[in-house]
UniProtKB/TrEMBL annotation:
Residues 24-276 form the EAL domain. It comes from the Bacteria. This is EAL domain-containing protein. The chain holds residues 537 to 813 of 813 of the full protein.
Amino acid sequence: HAKRQGRNAFQLYNNGISGLATSDFKMESLLREAIEKKEFVLHYQPQYDVKTLEIHGVETLIRWNSKELGMVSPADFIPLAEETGTIVEIGEWVIKEACRQNVEWQRRGLMHVPVSVNLSLRQFYQVNLVDKIAAILQETGLAPELLMLEITESIAMQEDIAIQVLQDLKALGVLIAMDDFGTGYSSLKYLHSFPIDHLKIDQAFTQNLENKEGLAIVTTIINLGKSLGICTVAEGVETSEQSNVLKELGCDIYQGYYYGKPLEAQALERHVQGGQK
Ligand code: C2E
Ligand code: MG
Ligand code: MG
Ligand code: MG
């Protein structure tokens, strides 16, 4: 349903600008040209260690600055890119650019933290994913432990293959995060067979901490992380109250507007140099 929603949202947005609905076909061709036209921009959102408030990592979030459509958010084009397969090419560009950027940050001594990149289902299941990532690490010179790949529970649909791919990725030395945890359809069984470094608590849960059910869910995820030895990351932290509760519950990492919005590389550098909360 998310797919459909994303596309409808885009159509509304697009109608608002041109008065005409762009067909998926047109949109797809615009998307295909977007890489070459250099219309994609990467934003980076900082993540902070709950205990020390030191920067712990940055998540890469793509933006599309389309000449014809204006700024388009990923929620509006990733579903189509995924459906049409364009995501494989876009995703590869994202990984390459994020790795290049992180190498540059290392070189300038600005920070020494992993950069996270979101992987779509389609990307995850392409046959040569592991080779491609190995080649990108080689080409950019990024240490594998400074790249984290974010996957969602949907990859568990083909559990045996997923376990194999994840093990191959771990063998490369990269880190794995389970994104939007608790929002998908999956059993807890895979969590212990998947080699996962970070469990990301979906922002819907973080933002529901003031009610009893919300608190219960987040408490459970954090305790699950603790007993499995997996770091928990709270997404969507917007207030000091949320931040305090999460700290009390023993959450490991904060991510959210309260600590920093996704920013272009240069703006993130200023944000990081300006010190933390
Ligand atoms: P996600 O990976 O779960 O990323 C977190 C989303 O929450 C981002 O939305 C981020 O801007 C937003 N966010 C962070 N902190 C807060 C907060 O405190 N409050 C609120 N309300 N929102 C917050 P964004 O950038 O619009 O991305 C949406 C989704 O699009 C991502 O969700 C991810 O699933 C997908 N996406 C983004 N970039 C890529 C990409 O390069 N490749 C793929 N495959 N998917 C991507
Ligand atoms: Mg993510
Ligand atoms: Mg998420
Ligand atoms: Mg999400």
